[in-house]
Design goal:
globular; 10 strands; alpha/beta; single chain; 13 helices; 8-stranded mixed beta sheet; Aminopeptidase
Length: about 450
């Protein structure tokens, strides 16, 4: 047996211990604040994100993200693959600086809970306590819906530059994945819009080719079959690497007489996925609507306010439902060329699906950016506050699927329900006829 000598540390007097404690506390607290100045968008682009008559290209977008990546300890930019035209498709991972030290572990926890197999409930709860909520938000999928890519720039800047209590809590509790969904389209559309030297004559209309090289607007029909490189890149991150609990897909435009459509979606919901997806979706949606009203941002509608549902299953956010992820869609008005919110008379009276109407008015692009940031922060906030619930629930939904697959489980479907109702109605009619004949 070989003895190991352990050197005895010298005993510290009380002032020395106190000094070390102060230093240790400072080092523990430092990561959230210890970064240099973050370049604001205006300094880099020459305009504020959302300024009238201005759009950034993807070349500029990439340059800006690379710059602030070098400046911030809250952000790491990764290339998740190439686009159809060979551009790098970027994802920013945003979280508290200290979380980067354990990033691989947090990814492993997210994967383990999503797959569910082989975990006990106690183990899942322990992992949910240890892990971080993983939240995906993207922009730019439909490139002529120019708000999406630009809110991505503004939101990322705010997340890495703000030091308010809420932002710091969000960063501590969450790992946020900010993903550009269609780099080629942003380059094309923004260049086309900005080509006119007269700002008031700029337009995204008349673009001479598809804004995704092969399928254009149908890139949001590709997420169940994965034909295009951008879709493949996105699906790999979502379903193989990070497995986020929440996926937020930004779109345009909002219904007439409103600013934005946000969930909840109209009934009936798709009965093929776990009901916890639906109630989780409603939970996130409630946080969004509450925040809009709290921040005096009216004009956000839901449910019957538009035709959106959970039934189209090939899109970026709807495919996620079958992976037990909460998929959020918003449709928001806004254009760098100012627009008018029209008068829709029925939208001037509050109702359950439009609790805070908005008056007709001239509308500027920056206002839409601000609404998008509010929506993002609402989701980041609820993910932070209910972190353990979101992490445990994705495990629970996976466990439900495994259990149903291992037992004799029946799923009621609309045709079967309709058939049963017809039979019951026929039976009641027959019984009533027999009773009438007996009485006669």
């Amino acid at each position: 047996m070989v003895a190991t000598r352990i050197a005895r540390r010298p005993k510290l007097d009380r002032p020395a211990r106190l000094t070390l404690a102060v230093v240790a506390f400072a080092l523990a607290a430092a990561p959230l604040a210890a970064q240099g100045r973050i370049t604001p968008p205006r300094e880099f682009f020459g305009f504020n994100i959302g300024d009238d008559y201005h759009l950034a290209t993807y070349t500029q977008f990439t340059g800006y993200w690379r710059k602030i990546d070098a400046e911030s300890n809250r952000m790491v930019v990764e290339e998740i693959g190439k686009t159809a035209e060979g551009r790098p498709q970027l994802m920013a991972i945003i979280t508290a600086p200290e979380n980067f030290r354990n990033l691989a572990r947090y990814k492993q926890i997210s994967q383990r809970l999503a797959l569910a197999e082989g975990l006990t409930e106690a183990q899942a709860r322990q992992l949910a306590r240890e892990g971080k909520a993983v939240v995906w938000f993207d922009g730019g999928l439909h490139a002529t819906e120019v708000l999406g890519a630009h809110q991505l720039i503004e939101t990322v800047y705010q997340l890495i530059s703000r030091n308010d209590e809420e932002t710091l809590r969000i960063l501590r509790d969450n790992i946020i994945l900010a993903v550009h969904a269609n780099p080629d389209g942003m380059e094309l559309v923004s260049s086309w819009y900005m080509r006119n030297p007269n700002p008031e004559q700029r337009s995204t209309g008349g673009i001479p080719r598809l804004y995704q090289k092969y399928i254009g607007h149908d890139n949001n029909r590709d997420f169940y079959i994965l034909n295009q490189p951008e879709s493949i890149n996105i699906a790999r991150i979502q379903y193989h690497e990070w497995m986020p609990q929440i996926i937020y897909n930004h779109h345009q435009t909002g219904p007439a007489g409103t600013v934005m459509f946000a969930p909840p979606f109209r009934d009936p919901f798709n009965h093929n996925f776990d009901p916890m997806v639906v109630v989780g979706l409603d939970l996130v949606a409630a946080a969004m609507h509450e925040r809009f009203i709290r921040e005096d941002k009216p004009g956000v509608t839901m449910r019957s306010g538009a035709s959106y549902s959970t039934w189209w299953n090939g899109g970026l956010r709807t495919t996620a439902y079958f992976h037990n992820m909460i998929g959020i869609l918003t449709e928001t008005i806004g254009n760098p060329t100012p627009i008018e919110i029209p008068l829709v008379v029925r939208n001037q009276l509050p109702r359950g699906d439009l609790p805070a109407p908005i008056a007709p008015q001239r509308w500027h692009f920056r206002q839409s950016v601000d609404y998008s940031v509010t929506a993002n922060y609402a989701i980041f906030d609820i993910a932070s506050r209910r972190k353990e619930d979101f992490l445990f629930n994705i495990y629970k939904m996976g466990k439900n699927a495994i259990d149903r697959g291992n037992t004799d489980t029946w799923t009621n479907r609309p045709m079967e329900v309709d058939s049963l109702e017809r039979r019951l109605a026929a039976g009641r009619a027959g019984a009533a006829g027999a009773a009438g004949a007996a009485g006669g």
